Amino acid sequence: MTQTHAVTGTFRDGLDAHLVVDRGGFRLDVALTVAPGEVVALLGPNGAGKTTALRALAGLTPLSGGHLRLDGTELDRTPPEARPVGVVFQDYLLFPHLTALDNVAFGPRCQGASKAEARAQAAEWLDRLGLAAHSGAKPRRLSGGQAQRVALARALATRPRLLLLDEPLAALDARTRLEVRARLRRHLAEFEAVAVLVTHDPLDAMVLADRLVVVEHGRVVQEGTPAGIARHPRTDYIARLVGLNLYRGEADGHTVRLADGPPLTTTEVLSGPVFVAFPPSAVTLHRDRPSGSSARNLWRCEVAGLETHGDQIRADLTGELPLAADLTTVAAAELGLHPGAEVWATVKAAQTHAYPV
Fold this sequence. Notes:
Oligomer: single chain
Number of helices: 9
Mean pLDDT: 90
CATH superfamily of the largest domain: P-loop containing nucleotide triphosphate hydrolases
Low-confidence stretches: 1-11
């Protein structure tokens, strides 16, 4: 996502947060810095602490420690209603008895604007988000995509310096999600302050965010650009998220020795602790041990499961090296694959990618 925001005025400092929250046996300890005009996605499995972090930023969950500064102003003890923060919740939380116009006008009214001023600002935001024709509709008359945009307009109408989006596309069906994701991307690209998005959907994160912060068990395990994380995953969760087989071992030249598994051959020459990754599409399956294959990596495996993956079949393999392999429906049929079938898996060294831990 490419942005060309000018950093001026009160937006020059952005977000500087160290979020420490103790809740029962769970501890969140996440450092987060976001520049003005930048969109950061907090990504992670269920229970990782993403929503806790978002609620801490909004002031809905108090910090146990750390700090929270926005544009140089301490917000640690500022009540939620006094924070310059706009929130788009997963289920949008629109007022069912108010029209779209009055839902959006609610924020400016709370900030002291007259009814006429608030409605004028709301009408401008609805027009900006392509909803002018629906200003008089109540939430029950709106589609999922329209309701999502009304919620976004309501958050933006208060002119927040921090915009928080909690799974903003989760309530949408697949077709609507595609359209709304594209619209939301355009609106976020125009937003001049700080935006933090929470999601467990890798596509939402990759499309909408400039930078990803991956959280597991309450801590940051990796952060970087979407492309960088997709190419260099550092945990099994991230590898599954971006669709790669990932292993960790000790490199000695072209050979990587795994702690629990056979050695892997790579094209990189490395030494010491490394990760090795390759896509399921790089794996070739054979029913008999191949004799003429040029692949340097060969393992005997067993099919643990098969599932449709897009227009292909993904085979979950166990054995000498647990891995995932993608193949066409025709290839799966010709190989006679079924759970329990024994196969040989090969991967060429040139299709692996090794990088330091």
